[in-house]
Amino acid sequence: MTSGVTNVSVAQVPPGTSLFRARGTSSDIEARPITAVLPLPVRLNSAAPRRYYLYLMAPAIAVLAFISLYPFVWLIVMSLQDVGVGAGEWVGLKNYTRLFNDVRFLEGWVLLAQYSAMCLALQLSIGLLLAVIVNGARWEKFLVTALLMPMMMAPAVAGLVWLFLYNGTFGWYHWLFQSLGWLDSGSILSSTDTAMLAIVLVDVWQWTPLITLIALAGLKRVPQDQLEANMVDGASPLRNFFAITLPNLYPVLLIAIMLRFMDNFRFIDAALVLTGGGPADSTKILPIYLFEVAFKFFKLGRGAAIALTLLVVTIILGKLLVRIFEKPKSERV
Amino acid sequence: MFYKPKNAIYKSVSRRRFMELGGSAVTMLGTGALGIGMNSTMMSTRVQAQSSEDAKWKQFAGSKLVFLSENTPPSFAIRDKIKSFYDLTGIEVEILTDDLPVVQQKAGIDLRSGNADYPLQYVQDKPIGAPFADFYADLSPMFGDDTLPQDPEGYGDEVWYDNFLTACGRYYDGAKVIALPYDAAVACTFYRKDIYEANSKAFEAEYGYAMEYTNDTTWKNVLDFATYFKARKAAGEDVPYGYAQHQGTFAWTTQLDIQRMMFAHGRWTDFDIDDKIGSKTPGKTKWGDEQSVLMLEKFKALADVSHPDNLANGTLELNTVYQSGNIAMQIQYHEFAASIEDEKTSVAGGGRTAYAPCPKGAPEWILNGGEAVNGTNCGIGGIGISGNATEEIKRAAYLFAIWSTSKQNQYEVLSGLGGTPTRKSVLALPDVVAARTRPTTMPNALTFDAVYDFGIKDPNFVLGPKIPEANEYHSIIASETQKMLSNAQTPAETASSVQSLLDSLNDA
Amino acid sequence: MASRDVVQYKSPLVVAFKIFSVIFLTVYLIWTLLPIFVMFVSSFKDLLEAFNIPEVGDWAGVTVFFDFTPTLKHYHSLFYDNNFGEYMANSLIAAGGSAVIAVTFGSMAAYSLSRVEFRGKGDLFFWIISTRMAPVVAVMVPLYAIFRSFDLIGTLPGLILAYTTFNLPFAIWILKGFFDNVPYSIEEAQMVDGATRFQAFMSILPLVAPGIAAFIVLCILFAWNDFLFAAIIGSGGAKTLPVATRELVQPQNIQWGAIMAAGVVTTLPMMLLGLVIRKYLVTGMTMGAVKE
Predict the structure, then answer these.
(1) Which residue ranges make up each domain of chain C?
(2) Domain span holding position A17
(3) What is the distance between the alpha carbons of residues A72 and A55, in angstroms, rounded to a whole number?
(4) What percent of chain B has pLDDT over 90?
(5) Residue B18's pLDDT band (boundaries 50, 70, 90)?
């Protein structure tokens, strides 16, 4: 892929048309530390200017420390205590050991994994397909704009709108599903078999456009000359897609996967509105269970322990994500 | 493009000005909003026992209090009338209404942290009262305080409806009264008289007795009714389902559904404790015994012939199903009568609906040798005062508590928005007596025969376990029974998993 | 793209894919726009009309969806019986305030991070971005405790600060990418001309101005759509639109008409903003990982 990329990019895009394209098309899928690309003058690191830069940084760092370090320390302290309704008492690691006997905690992880996997599989396949279809289409600008509308809606509001659509008495989607023969008389939210699907559908509805947007950005960078050369050699479009297009999309798609994964950990607004974890815990993904433990049962110690496990996994995922960003492009798959 | 090095320094000055402006705008935002803090403020003038009533009411004029409440009609009703409280006392009350879960969170965090951001709170008996009972102020010392105005009827058990004061005000040792009953949600049966009459003959031909609903109708009869309707529906006839439950997302109503039936059969309760005042150490649960397994089997049988949306419906959704004519009977909280009787939104209105007590236990389903009763449960909402508040604030808040639960106020809420009174004297008012029969101007009064005269009286009354872990208890019962209803586990498995989860919850 | 037309396939497979594309795209567009459309239309319906649906399988009955007399009463009740005007102002101030703070502090920090090298910079940078990844539920209780001790609960400054928890790291992360793209030689030239360091910093701001403007809008979008922070830290004195909308779900009465109207009020401004900054949306939503 390497030689193709450089040739095309130089030829197609006049340098400096916008801030983002200043360094040519191939770097639009950005490798993070451009500082490495632009070596800075050595004297920047002399003592006086360094202090000056630290001053500039200070307000942001102070605010962030205030709202992130303290909660983190608090979580750790809390997770070592039994804080029910009364005052807390130190219990060591009991909150953690108990987690591993807590079926709801373990199931919460399994459900979270299932939920994320279902969301991602659908979003990726549909999003990618849409990107391929829309790419270069006559109405591309208009189509993309129409597609991304769901992303603008507050997730809590989206949850309510879908609750209205799913309602077993007056919901239009309920009527539609029944008329198509996909559902018996019960509403989609009332069965353990379908409730998870119901919240997955909402997530897919809202966030597939993001995958489409990302994939579309990636598609624009696929080396056209290579595709054409292959076509002349008689390769089928399908083969071309798998041999050239997809490998080129791989890095962006990976980023998309990570982002959606983390967001599934972060946001539970819509699911809370739609099912609140029910029926029969079939949608009680870990963040919802955490919400219950901390805010409904007021088990702050146990909640903190759950929160920390969630936090650790998120941070590991985040670290992976950042590593992908930071890898110079040439080292990427 | 943007790159203009020649005049860049000049430009940078204007940019700086721009930033300064932005900065001051941010500062203004900050100070402008600081006034919206939510701390209560206090003003007071000394009064003595001999002072006039008016002086006693006005002693805290100029103060400001915050009332944290649920977003229910009674709260809105109070908010509409808050002006008259201000006129009476000169105290400004800010009412914050939130979803019950948010109210729980805020009350919990505020009480636990030792603050009194919300000196007045809506104390729902189990979701809020049970976990936080220790954090509320004892009202009883103020009941006899002659430097405070007092309700002419007083606050004894006898002035409220049976069990109400204990349900929302007394917890565990019963030494304190932490809340005064403000509104009530009591379960009763709503059924379609017209549909029952139309199907009576056909039902009798099949089952050998008439399809009628009386105080002696049992859960077994309800199962028969529902089975009958389901069979007719399966045969393609245009009939509604016979029954439906609120087994949906709201764990609390889910638990109340199963509890009602279990208590009806031999007055079975989860723990061996005084049901009304609860216990901090409930000990081992009775789940897993023979009676509980049988009840789960019957509960499942009933759910199988009920409306299929059980697992998605809470109280309100179920009520919508009933309003739309898709079920012939529901067990619902009596405050919903007002919405049923509204012919504009309900096909069940216009005299088609009758109200009756909850079903009775079926003698043949009682294995523990107990009595068959019309198990009736409820939620009583009280007004309580944060124990973290200063003495002065508590006294000011007390004025609001007794005002809002007074006879006159309750009557106005009932006739205005459709409230649910807690004082006996309200029901003795001629207007209210007249409203108990159709045509009525206060539809909720149609349920009073079934609710106040029968359901909430002993031996039918059941409150459900008041335990500090009430919220997690509700969640466990809801999740496990839902699993059974969706065929993920058998009744016996359910009973034993509930047993082990509850015992580990209570360290028993 | 002209180059595309050079080689074209006309195999049956390609034709089939073309037909499939059109069908799929149509179905998907309907599916993606329908909920929004239903929300808009239902907000103008009387409740009983909104509950009107045809019999199962009665496809011709779909027309009942359009069988209604438009009413503005839900909007009227939002702004007159309810304080949606105030909630909207709260949303605007909280989202706008946090965006301004995030971008102000963020650009200063991002600029410095872009210009200076020191040991542990990678770790610092990761710490900054990880605050943005933390599950909101996980940090809510401790945040509440801190905010309470500074009397920030239920106030607009409190909510602004709460939104800063996710907008500030986001701004630093994105803006650093912008500053990285501005050559240091510009500042150097300024300083040779006698400008102070701060003036030099200000002089390159215009270069990144379009990006900053777009990210102010994105920050507003994220803050505006937030629910959990607003529900726990804001509600009371600083109730925002999503929270107020959620509150229309009452235990005894879900006000669907009002909810749909509130949904429109909440969503419409963001859709318009979204159109305005469409170009920057991918970059923003992917935290700078992908640029269009």
Answers:
(1) 2-71, 75-285
(2) 1-30
(3) 25
(4) 38
(5) very low
Quick check: C229 and C139 in contact, CB under 8 A? no
Is the ipTM here above 0.95?
Answer: no
Within an 8 Å CB–CB cutoff, is residue B469 touching chain A? yes
Radius of gyration from C-alpha coordinates of chain A: 24
Domain encompassing residue B206: 186-378+460-505
Distance separating the N- and C-terminal Cα atoms of chain C: 17
Whether the Cβ atoms of residue B455 and residue B215 lie closer than 8 Å to each other: no
With 60 as the cut, is the pLDDT of residue B28 above it? no
The pLDDT value recorded for residue C191 is 80
pLDDT-derived band at A327 (thresholds 50, 70, 90) equals low
Say how many domains are in chain B: 2
> How close C10 gets to chain B, by Cα (Å)?
45
What CATH number has the domain bearing residue B106? 3.40.190.10
Section B238-245 average pLDDT: 89
Provide the CATH number for the domain formed by C75-285 in this structure: 1.10.3720.10
**Per the CB < 8 Å rule, is C111 touching A56?**
yes
How far is residue B465's CA from residue C265's CA, in Å, rounded to a whole number?
43
Inform me whether the C-beta atom of residue A229 falls under 8 Å from chain C C-beta atoms: no
More confident residue, A16 or B177: B177
Q: Does C38 sit within 8 Å of A63, measured CB to CB?
A: no
Contact of B388 with chain A, judged by CB distance below 8 Å, is answered with no
Tokens linked to B200: 């009576």
**B45 — contact with chain C (CB < 8 Å)?**
no
Helix B8-34 to helix C84-115 angle (10° resolution) is 140
Which whole number is the average pLDDT over C206-220? 81
Chains that touch C (3 or more CB pairs under 8 A): A, B
The domain that holds A206 is classified in CATH as 1.10.3720.10
Q: In whole angstroms, give the CA distance from residue B84 to residue B404.
A: 11
User: In percent, how much of chain C has pLDDT > 70?
Assistant: 91
Confidence band of C5 (pLDDT split at 50, 70, 90): very low
Provide the H-helix boundaries in B151-265: 164-169, 193-207, 219-234, 251-264
- Report residue C8's pLDDT band, with 50, 70 and 90 as the boundaries: low
Do B206 and B331 lie in one domain? The reply is yes
Q: Among A20, A67, A237, whose Cβ lies nearest the Cβ of C165?
A: A67
Looking at the structure, tell me whether residues B181 and B191 fall in a common domain: no
Tally DSSP H helices, then E strands, for chain B: 21, 8
A34 pLDDT higher than 70: no
pLDDT category at B229 given cuts 50, 70, 90 is: very high
Please provide the DSSP assignment of B125-182 as one string: IIIIIHHHGGGBPP-HHHHT-TTS---TT-S-GGGBSTTHHHHHH--TT-----EEEE
B65, B211: one domain: no
Closest Cβ–Cβ partner in B131, B313, B486 for A298: B131
Both B428 and B293 in one domain: the answer is no
Secondary structure, 3-state, chain C: CHHHHHCCCCCHHHHHHHHHHHHHHHHHHHHHHHHHHHHHHHCCCCHHHHCCCCCCCCHHHHHHHHCCCCCCHHHHHHHHCCCHHHHHHHHHHHHHHHHHHHHHHHHHHHHHHHHCCCCCHHHHHHHHHHHHHCCHHHHHHHHHHHHHHCCCCCCHHHHHHHHHHHHHHHHHHHHHHHHHCCCHHHHHHHHHCCCCHHHHHHHHHHHHHHHHHHHHHHHHHHHHHCCHHHHHHHCCCCCCHHHHHHCCEECCEECHHHHHHHHHHHHHHHHHHHHHCHHHHHHHHCCCCECC
Q: Which residue has the higher pLDDT, A10 or B81?
A: B81
B316 pLDDT above the threshold of 60: yes
Both tokens of B419, joined, read: 């409230």
Q: A260-269, B41-50, C2-11, C157-166 — which is least confidently predicted?
A: C2-11
